[in-house]
Amino acid sequence: MIRTLVVDDDFRVADLHRLYTEQVGGFEVVGIARTGSEALDLVGRLQPDLLLLDIYLPDMSGIDVLRRLREQRRPVDVITITAAKDVATLRAAMHGGSVHYLIKPFTFAVFRERLESYAAVASRLGQVEETSQADVDRMYGLLRPGDERELPKGLSAATRDLVIDTLRTAGEPLSAVQVASVAGVARVTARRYLDHLAETGVVELTLNYGAPGRPEHRYVLAGRP
């Protein structure tokens, strides 16, 4: 589970982000902070993996929190969630190592996509000791929003998202035949999209040896059990 700390001075927004996070598989909220000093204290005590960090806090800015975390060498990743649209704040968040920058307001679908892309990268980093350039490119690609990821000729974003949603709601690894049946597409179409998503690291390929003969390929979203 990815242990997550929510930081927002508005208790209603903080609770909404908590609810959003708890609806994404593989994440748990371990605490909520409403000031920068409280966030720094809870990071030290709870040692979360991920911080959902607002910029506008009553005692210090989220950027100051981010800088202090880096000064203290706290091993916590940060997703910035804010209404701030100015370039200076964006640049400061990037310099501080924020892995995503979400501008309020946003939909749950956008929020979920950012968390799942982060989880996919975290999962892959936990599986390897050394990376190639292809691995690095693949992991950085996972952090880009889905609509920005390049698709091979003949593949559409709408069908790709349909295949991803099919895997997301399944709760278990699926074969290409099962994905095709649930998504309502041809088996060859499902296989093309699944192969592309596996190549780009969005899904992981497993083998099912339960039946006699050749093992069956099954697919699951990266970062999912």
Structure description:
The chain has 225 residues and is an alpha/beta fold. It has two domains: 105 residues, Response regulator (Rossmann fold), CATH 3.40.50; 78 residues, Arc Repressor Mutant, subunit A (Orthogonal Bundle), CATH 1.10.10. 47% of the residues lie in helices and 17% in strands. The protein is built from nine helices and seven strands. The strands form two sheets. Strands 2-1-3-4-5 form a five-stranded parallel sheet, sandwiched between helices. Strand 3, helix 3 and strand 4 form a beta-alpha-beta unit. The longest helix has 18 residues. The mean pLDDT is 86.
Radius of gyration: 19 Å
Task: Please report the distance between the alpha carbons of the first and last residues.
Answer: 10 Å
Helix content: 40-55%
How many helical stretches? 9
What's the CATH architecture name of the largest domain? 3-Layer(aba) Sandwich
Give the biggest sheet.
5 strands, parallel
